[in-house]
Specification:
The complex is a heterodimer of chains A (47) and B (285). Chain A is mostly helical and 47 residues long. Chain A has 4 helices and no strands. The mean pLDDT of chain A is 92. In chain B, 52% of the residues lie in helices and 4% in strands. With 285 residues, chain B is mainly alpha-helical. The chains are: A mainly alpha (47), B mainly alpha (285).
């Protein structure tokens, strides 16, 4: 447990990088891009 | 140079960098390049004409509200990555809306200190907003096609109205013809947040911001850490009197509410507060 505690930052760093890779494989980044390159009507208070 | 002045310079550079597409402001259009696949660390609407990256909160809702995916590894991964490297240092140094609130608070009129009885419970509101408006509503409140909406952006967030809405609506006739109650509602929220920011320090960050809520969870776990040197500290609490986020520095310097602005370091006459990157956690005894 002590070792886990000592390396907790690196563990979280590893999980976050793994999540990003899984997200890219699931093409979530394309969903983000698709939304971000159009004016978000909800965000600006129109839609 | 004092930490406070250095911070303002870094905040200005970060805001300029995040909104670096100057043609967007000149031509009343938003940037459509591939850099928008990446999220910026702070709260910055991707419908701001200058935005070159995506807002993490907007991006999270964009994925969650879609038909195909009900969890976003990509955006949670990015938020975790920023969180574990910086914690809420992002709120203090890199968030453009944090800078706007800081500048508004510099307007020289009397300030209000929210009483503890009201302040304490209100701090939990941002967690409720993060869970309900950013995660649950976009997943479960969907139309007949299974598609949700970015409810936080739509109903609460004043950043899009300020950074994108006002300019785009005032210069685009088609958009102007479509505005209705929602625009008035969001303008109302924006006016309230602006007025409150003048008299209360960073009310949006303290009580509403879901991104600050997520990053706050990482304050204890991030590589960037604050520390009180107990050998040098005299317990005078000059740091706590200086802290505008009302953090109990001597008890919990890496509190989820600390935006790591470093004003406590400036206030300490004994140089007892340190901050910086630490690779390993302290071993439990």
């Amino acid at each position: 447990m002590n070792i886990l505690f000592k390396f907790q930052k690196f563990i979280i760093l590893g999980i976050s990088l793994a999540f990003i890779c899984i997200g890219v494989l699931r093409q979530e980044h394309l969903a983000v891009l698709q939304k971000a390159v159009k004016i978000c009507l909800e965000c600006i208070g129109v839609g | 140079m004092k930490n406070k002045n250095k911070r303002t310079i870094i905040q200005l550079i970060a805001a300029a960098f995040t909104n670096g597409y100057i043609f967007g402001f000149l031509q009343n259009k938003i940037y459509t390049g591939n850099t928008k696949v990446m999220c910026v660390p702070g709260l910055n609407c991707y419908s701001c004409p200058g935005a070159v990256g995506s807002c993490p909160i907007g991006a999270l809702q964009a994925v969650l509200s879609g038909r195909e995916r009900k969890f976003s590894y990509y955006v949670f991964g990015i938020i975790m990555l920023f969180g574990v490297i910086f914690g809420r240092l992002i709120c203090g140094f890199l968030c453009p809306f944090g800078l706007i609130q800081d500048l508004l608070h510099k307007i020289p009129i009397p300030k209000i200190n929210v009483p503890k009885d009201i302040d304490r419970p209100l701090r939990y509101l941002k967690y409720v907003i993060a869970v309900v408006f950013v995660i649950l509503m976009p997943i479960f409140l969907v139309n007949q096609f299974g598609i949700g909406s970015p409810y936080f952006c739509k109903l609460i967030c004043p950043v899009g109205t300020l950074e994108g809405g006002i300019q785009l609506v005032s210069t685009n006739e088609i958009l102007r013809s479509q505005i209705g109650f929602l625009f008035s509602w969001k303008m109302g929220i924006l006016i309230v947040v602006v007025v409150l920011s003048i008299i209360i320090y960073r009310p949006f960050c303290k009580y509403i911001c879901p991104l600050g809520a997520f990053y706050g969870l990482f304050n204890r776990l991030s590589f960037y850490q604050m520390e009180v040197d107990t050998k040098k500290c005299t317990g005078c609490k000059a740091c706590e009197r200086q802290c505008k986020m009302n953090v109990e520095i001597l008890k919990n310097i890496n509190s989820a509410e600390c935006i790591r602005c470093g004003e406590c370091k400036d206030a300490c006459a004994f140089d007892a507060i340190k901050s910086g990157y630490k690779a390993f956690g302290k071993e439990k005894k």
